[in-house]
Amino acid sequence: MAKDKTLKLAFVGGAPNSAAGYAHYVASRMDGVWRLEAGAFSRNAETNRAAANTYGVPPSRTHDSLDALLTHESGAIDAVVVLTPTPDHVRMVEQLLRKGLPVICEKALAMTSAETRALQELCAEENSFLTVIYNYSGYPMVRELRSMIREGVLGEILHFQAEMPQEGFLRTDDKGNKPVPQDWRQKDGPVPTLHLDLAVHLHELIFYLTGEKPLEVVADQASRGWFPVIDNVSCLARYSNEVQGQLWFSKCALGHRNGLRLRIYGSKASAEWYQHNPEEVFVSFADGRRQIVDRASNAKVASLRRYNRFKAGHPAGFNEALANLYVDIHAALTGYKTNGRQESEEVFGGDLAVEGLQFLEAMVRSCASRKWEKVG
After folding, report:
1. Cα atoms in the Cβ-side hemisphere of radius 13 Å centred on 6
2. Which domains does the chain have, with CATH numbers?
3. Angstrom distance (rounded) from CA 52 to CA 102
4. How far apart are CA 366 and CA 364, in angstroms?
5. In terms of DSSP bridges, do strands 281-285 and 232-239 run parallel, antiparallel, or are they unpaired?
6. pLDDT tens-digit map of 107-125
7. CB 308 within 8 A of CB 325
């Protein structure tokens, strides 16, 4: 990427000691299309200074609050990445949109569908740019799987299973000590934090792969770990075009570090992708044949040069997937600056975020009613 096309970033939140801050720093720099130039990385002054030092941001461009960043940086940066805890997103995204700054926000965009819709409408009113980070669809083999589905390799999509089990709310360290999550992760709002952490990814991935939308759900939830929050959810879903779905997401599933797995079943073949083995899609055909597709095989998308920073056999992972998404956001924002429209098949804004929160809210209603609930 030519140097004059590099865009300038600021972070709000995202200190290296945060959940994903350093990953965003590494990913945004990986392909030379972004440069982190300013930030308000932490409310803690010492952590804020340390973050700036780690990221190479000068003291003069290190700010102690979003207000200070807006005062000093509004004309000097191309986009702001919001990496604060989810409960802080609405206030910060609203401030940034009203200042006319393009916003890149970690998922979930907000805590409820009403809040999310308000941000979507504000973005439209201000004619601004807003995108939400869903990094798992940046994996090359997830994109390869989408290409296979679009080309009809799987035939008509019949049903799917999507799961994201983790163990962090039940596992201990080797001395028997319990985990200490951030305070906001130990509280539930109208939509449990578990849904906002994990289920938003499953919703986005199924839409990304199939283009289908959830219509109604029946769900069950429980609290089984150390904390008084929902930490295990199972859900049956009916999607558009009569596609059936099963979703499971958990933080009390011992043995799963981050067990993201997608199984898509069609009339001609099925396909499976597992994040712990991210370089392969396993395909089973109706005639009994089985095939493993990876970057070194007859892949049409994953073999593209942009996904092969190093040759196949040396697996790419989470940071590379996030870097792929940052390249896509760069392209989407550059297009927006040119023609005033936010257009991308890889980058999603308020529309998908609203639907996702409505999906999660329907799950919550179903757990209370013990019945199928419509989405929206």
Report:
1. 14
2. 3-136+324-348 (3.40.50.720), 137-311+356-369 (3.30.360.10)
3. 22
4. 5
5. unpaired
6. 999 999 999 999 999 999 9
7. no
